[in-house]
Design goal:
Layout (H helix, E strand, L loop, with lengths): L11 H10 L4 E2 L2 H7 L13 E2 L6 H6 L13 E6 L9 H12 L4 E6 L5 H10 L6 E5 L4 H5 L4 E4 L8 H8 L4 E4 L4 H4 L7 E3 L4 H13 L1 H19 L1 H12 L1
Helix pairs in contact: 4-9, 7-10
């Protein structure tokens, strides 16, 4: 099972393993499959590599109790992101997003849940741009449902993902999501009825989309409800297990 969206080296060992030993190479998205085969197109036929998405045990997920965090002080829109604080996750784009939303006069807070090596750098950027009141680094959540049930809009500025697990979790909580048209995101959000994709790295379009959602609670509700139905139908554990049984049976 390959979940990392980076090319595999065309080494003797990898060629041997993939042609003589491994019978069922599987990737966690079609984008990961494309990257997987980048250096191996003359070694491994495309139809030999299968795609099975990473499933979520939604029965267990929704059995967890929820204790939302109170971030809203007045009537702000609460925008949230979950992810390790590393370059891959693109949280530096949220600094630019906050500046654009301030220009539009929106009352908001952006809450970032996660820890990582870029924490100090992000804090410095937040202070440099006078965004201490608009952006909060909330740290690690042992129960991410607490966090997701504390926000209104989920933003996902990742530069690359094998499979956007955090994006699926947010959609399962009926959150309208905005992400870049990158890597596997279009596989999770195939249409505007269940979420929004914007060109990378167009922060103006990103901010316009978030602003539109912030101004329209009915749209947030409609998109969130359809998002939940979609991800539960496509990514629940039972569906994924049947895919494995079909492949291995």
């Amino acid at each position: 099972m390959r979940g990392l969206s980076v090319p595999i080296k065309n080494s003797f060992l990898n060629r041997y393993l993939l042609t003589k030993v491994i019978t069922h190479p599987v990737t966690n998205s079609f984008d990961t499959k494309k990257i997987f085969l980048t250096n191996l197109k003359n070694v491994l036929p495309e139809n030999k590599v299968h795609v099975i998405y990473r499933g979520i045990n939604f029965d267990e997920w929704f059995s967890r109790s929820v204790s939302p965090v109170k971030y809203r002080e007045n009537d702000e829109i609460i925008i949230g992101n979950v992810g390790r604080l590393v370059k891959q996750k693109g949280q530096h784009y949220l600094i630019d997003l906050a500046l654009k939303l301030k220009e539009k006069g929106l009352k908001f807070k952006i809450i970032i849940a996660g820890i990582g090596k870029l924490e100090a750098e992000l804090k410095e950027l937040i202070a440099k741009n006078n965004l201490e009141q608009e952006i909060i680094l909330a740290g690690f959540f042992s129960n991410v449902r607490d966090f997701l049930n504390s926000i209104d809009i989920f933003v996902f500025p990742s530069i690359w993902e094998g499979f956007g697990y955090a994006l699926v979790e947010a959609m399962a909580e009926e959150l309208p999501a905005v992400a870049f048209v990158k890597t596997s995101n279009p596989e999770i959000i195939p249409n505007k009825e269940i979420g929004f994709l914007v060109d990378y790295p167009d922060i103006d379009e990103f901010a316009d989309t978030v602003f539109k959602l912030a101004q329209n609670p009915n749209l947030r509700k409609q998109v969130g409800e359809k998002a939940k139905e979609s991800v539960i139908r496509r990514f629940n554990f039972d569906v994924i297990i049947r895919e494995w049984e079909k492949l291995l049976g």
